[in-house]
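Task: fold both queries, return tokens.
Query 1:
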Amino acid sequence: MLDVLIDTVEATVFGTNCYVVAPAAGEECVVVDPGVDVADRLAEVLRRHRLKPAAVLLTHGHLDHTFSVTPVCGAHGVAATIHAADAHRLHDPLAGLGAPLRAALEATTGAVTWREPDEVVTVEDGAALRVAGLSIDVSHAPGHTEGSVLFSVQRPGEADVLLSGDVLFAGSIGRTDLPGGDHRAMLRSLLTRVLPLDDATEVLPGHGPATTIARERATNPHLRRLAGLSGFTGLTGG
């Protein structure tokens, strides 16, 4: 990807992608979705590229995307940024985890405790973030959770980079049967937030490999089904 540096650390549990985004090596950066036990490997990525975090961005508040947010924010003296509708999940994300998932997590990490970040900044739909030399637009895309968002990193003269969290994956979409999920809201988000995006948009999802909007429009069965419903006012609210 031209004109922006992006590196990835995959979490040891749940396979969450934590992204580091910067204009170039030796600059400030943003960290997106620091998941389970990524702090040490993230620190190595930052050292390798000589980067200094200016913010931690969260696509939503589920624990697999926020597990390391407090130590990462604390290590660099930066705030955690999350949509206002998901900010409550940073109070105690363990509460909605459920016994089986908590057992799986503790089998890898040991006893799990939680402390909220010292500083939490909330954003709303349409926010234009200017941080670490990057221009990042925020699009509210509920469905996986109430406060799920898409972060679009602008690249002048090149296709945008979409950090899609758990809204859109390569070949699939986010679940709606977890805390905060709403299937109808997810369909609206895909129709009104994802399908209108430019085909050239690079997509970096919360789990799994990178893709493009063109590829997903052509091959993702969920988007293919929805494409014919773009004028259906029952979903779009028009």
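Query 1 returned. Query 2:
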Amino acid sequence: MHVFVTGATGWIGSAVVDELLDAGHEVTGLARSDDSATALERKGARVHRGDLDDLDGLRAGAESADAVIHLANKHDWANPAESDRAERAAVQTFADTLTGTGRAFVLAAGLSTLATGRPATETDLSPAVGPGSHRGGAENLALEYAEKGMRVISARFAPSVHGVGDHGFVAALVAAARKHGVSGYLGDGTAAWAAVHRTDAARLVRLGLEGAPTGSLLHAVAEEAVTTKEIAEAIGRTLDVPVVSVAPENAAEHFGFVGRFFALDMSASSARTRELLKWTPYGPSLAEDIEAGAYA
């Protein structure tokens, strides 16, 4: 299968490209820079130059492939509305291009707002609907095309997709611990995050592309609930700094942008996903990665 991948040199996307190539698929990756293009070429992937705002380029990439995996996102924490706008425009472009073709469209989604007071499951629908909602309501927009001749699959990633080289939420928590000399958690630390190793997440994306039916909501989750206090304790042991509670009103000052997420309960189950795809995570746990120096 020839797969067009956006975010192909990103944290998750680069692992997905490796997984696809190892499985014998052909890959064309979207590349904004010369460095990204070179990285893809070295792996044996083709290069499509462009970015998320080049909608004609996205359309051309989709038209020339057998399937699309959309993992790119601007992640502009200073201007989330712009990230949401770009995400919705890209998904709409892919949907318009792939409708009626029978081709697969896999998009990245999150787990942060799916459930309250319990782990989210694959039966929980995203409350984000419409252009002004989180991620531009892209998941629900894509699902509108699930019965219109496009095989739509949403890959919902745990808030921590961890491993050596991760520069996401946990890396920001480690940076805050280095800055302040303490490893913090908010309140009583009982809020919990789901987690998955990067290689397991990449394998899930490939399995979903190859076999998930249209309309599938897949959870890339290995650990259902790692409490924020447990995360802070693992960071504290690694950096040899005290572990302390931070008052919620001081979250932004202490943690920076990640403070707005650290108090959220973002736990999730992947039981249905594992059964559907026969997917079993094999990678290390989040604590094991932290203590092994993945964020050193």
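Both queries returned. Flag for query 2: The domain at 2-159+196-221 is CATH 3.40.50.720 (Rossmann fold).
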